[in-house]
Prior knowledge:
The chain has seven helices and seven strands; from the N terminus they run βαβαβαβαβαβααβ. The chain is an alpha/beta fold. Helix 2 links the parallel strand 2 and strand 3.
Amino acid sequence: MSTIQDKVVIITGASSGIGEATAKDLTSKGAKLVLAARREDRLKALHEEILKSGGQAIYKVTDVTSHEQMEELAEYALKEYGKIDVLVNNAGVMPQAFLFNKKVDEWDKMIDVNIKGVLYAIAAVLPSMRERKSGHIINLSSVAGHNVYPGGTVYCGTKHAVRAISEGLRQEEAMSGTNLRVTNVSPGAVSSELLTTTTDPEMKAGLDEFYKTAIDAEIIARTIAFAIEQPSDVAINEMIIRPTVQMG
């Protein structure tokens, strides 16, 4: 029996890409899922698919940029399942453009989703995890959280922030003796809907070419499962997963 069996797992951005793949992988291992995203039609379809496969899942339409909605999501999970074992902080956006294009609305959106959304999710689950002295927070950063490249300046900034938040949280909880585990996952090029968030034609063309070697989201899902499956006294803190041929 997998150690994932009966763990309650919240997944943000569950309606597509890595979030959807992770939901399907974890449900096959017996997890009880709490699916969160903005698109109710996609959430409902995924929920029905999981139930038909014999899995256990609930869902709630949630905007991670709303502190109130994230608190409500955690409360819903606790009400339905009585605990939260794992948070997969997956929701994110990736519009790319050079700074001189002044796409300020896109900067704001990346900061709201990629940084504030991560913090709001952590804040929502942390009290109950600390009370139980058990829990696992998995944040999805990116290789852009390790590198910086032209046109990705703000996105890289947000993903560097996710790494810093992950490491700060890890140290705080290790110091506090709460037995909470923290994992930062940094994918390279992965097939998902992230590319659709780039509106700049020049950057979009470059990204389309770069992502021709993208790996499947299921690879990242299995990586997340690997981190969860470790014994409670073992924390996989950092993982970088790229296509073999990816340079940066």
